[in-house]
Structure formats: C-alpha cells, structure tokens
Specification:
By secondary structure, this protein is of the alpha/beta class. The protein folds into two domains: 175 residues, 3-Layer(aba) Sandwich (Rossmann fold); 89 residues, 3-Layer(aba) Sandwich (Aminopeptidase), CATH 3.40.630.30. 39% of the residues lie in helices and 23% in strands. The strands form two sheets. A five-stranded parallel sheet has the order 3-2-1-4-5, sandwiched between helices. The protein has a four-stranded mixed sheet with strand order 6-7-9-8. Helix 5 links the parallel strand 2 and strand 3. Helix 2 packs antiparallel against helix 5. The longest helix has 18 residues. The protein starts with a helix and ends with a helix.
Length: 273
C-alpha cells in the first residue's frame, strides 16, 4: 500500500483515490516490475520511487483542465511504460485515453496492463508521432494531448499539437530545466498546396509565435526555409521575423540537401509590435 508520504502528496495536489484505484496502481506496479525484468521499461523500480516519481508526477495534471466536462478524450504521445496516461486513466476513469508509442513491445506491455486492470475506454496505438498526427483517425481528435517524453519542447509541440482539437490543450511534462529550453525555440511547418495563397500559414505562424511568447514565456523563436521556397520566407517576414543569414547545405527535404534561410524574433521585439 502507498506510504503516508505519497498520500500527503496526493492531498497537496487535491487528488483523491478510492481503494479500488489504489489497488489498480499497485497491480500496475507489479506488472511493471515483472515485465521490466526482461525488457527496458523504467530505471525506477523501487515501490516508493515509482509511487512518487511516476504516479504522483503523472497525476499533477488535474482533469478536466478547464473544470468542464469530465468525458474528455486524451492522448499520451510517446507514452513508454504508460506515464502519464495510465495513472490519469486510473484516477479519472471517465476520460477516454489513447496510449501512443513507437515501440511495439511497449504496446504489448500496455495492453497487458489494461487487460489485467480491467480498464475500459482506453486503447493503444503503435506508430510514430509524426505519422500519427497526419492520420484522419487521430488528427485533431483530442481535447488534451500529453507527453512526458524526453525531447525539447519545440519537438514535443510539433509532435503533439496535430492531435489537439481547436480549443484543446497540449500539456508537456517537463523538469526544472525547462527555462533553458525556453531560451530559443525552433518552429517548423508545412502546408498542403491546396491551401496556399490564403493567408492560412501567416495566421497560424503568428498565433504560434504569440502562444510561445505570451503563454510559455519564450525568449527567442526561430524558423528556417529552403532558399528555393521564398514564399515561406515572406510568411516569416509578415510575422515580423528578422532574416539572420543562410546556412549553406543546412537542411534536407524532398529535394535533397538544401540551403536554409534563417529568421528569428525576440521577446523584446514582439513586445513592441
């Protein structure tokens, strides 16, 4: 059973768990340790550490985020051993959850946990995040996308945002080192030719820039484009980004190795717009 320390920490984040939910967390732990003996799921295996560093950390996110309907859809991108998606499902059973991961062996583990815990309204998807975000079944289908994966915030945003509905949320579980990542954020984008010349990309990039400066507290945002695609540079210019220079053979796309024109905007510049 969880220690008094774990229970006090739950109280501190205003999370209440029933005896059944505690039992489910304990069973989850047993399966985790068993499978971890023959495959690499986690470097943390001591009971108390799992409770505090995996379970409690996962449950820091309160659902629903806006205090509205509990019947929301949530996707955990790069879920690994199921954190934070599985603890959130256990704590908020009415939430519909999708656990998304690129390794099939982890998917098999997650399916076993789901079956043994008797969880309903939760499924697993095997695939790459960059491909999943293009899928009609997954793109813009979720109220909340979460990720506890080890990657830069800019990368996590690129992977997670395509899954989120308009008005939804992307929640990145990050450590205390987040301030270092916010010093400089890179943005990449791609738009199908059917939607060119409609101002869509300019409006979208402008909104993303505003989000990172106003909501995230970024200091610098940069973007780059193939020098043979000047239209993309015009989008950056319209968003008040400044041309910094060209990286010769600095990138690769469907044309092969290409030169990249680099643009950026600083928080102090954005504040004067």
């Amino acid at each position: 059973m969880p220690s008094a320390i774990f229970k006090r920490n739950l109280e501190s984040i205003n999370v209440e768990l029933s005896d059944k939910q505690i039992e489910q967390l304990d069973k989850y732990y047993e399966i985790l340790v068993e499978w971890n003996s023959f495959m690499n799921l986690t470097g943390i295996t001591e009971y108390e550490e799992v409770m505090l560093k995996h379970y409690l950390d996962s449950l820091v996110l309160r659902l629903p985020i806006d205090g509205g309907n509990l019947n929301i859809k949530l996707i955990d991108v790069g879920t690994g051993a199921g954190f934070p998606g599985l603890p959130l499902k256990i704590a908020y059973p009415d939430t519909e959850v999708v656990l998304f991961d690129s390794l099939n062996k982890r998917i098999k583990f997650l399916d076993e946990v789901i079956a043994q815990l008797g969880l309903k309204g939760i499924s697993t998807v095997h695939g790459r995040a960059e491909d999943g975000g293009k899928s009609k079944e997954l793109r813009e289908q979720f109220d909340v996308s979460v990720s506890r994966a080890v990657a830069d915030l800019s990368v996590l945003s690129e992977y997670n945002l395509p899954f989120v509905k308009v008005g939804g949320y992307f929640v990145a579980y990050k450590s205390g080192e987040i301030d270092e990542e916010l010093e400089s954020i890179s943005i990449g984008y791609c738009l199908g030719s059917a939607w060119w010349n409609r101002g869509i990309m300019t409006e979208t990039l402008s909104a993303i820039i505003s989000f990172f400066f106003e909501q995230v507290g970024a200091n610098r945002i940069e973007a780059c484009h193939d020098t043979e695609n000047p239209a993309s540079g015009k989008v950056m210019q319209k968003c008040r980004m400044t041309y910094e220079g060209t990286l010769r053979q600095g990138g690769k796309n469907n044309r092969g190795i290409v030169d990249l024109a680099v643009y950026s905007i600083l928080a102090e510049e954005y504040a004067t717009l």
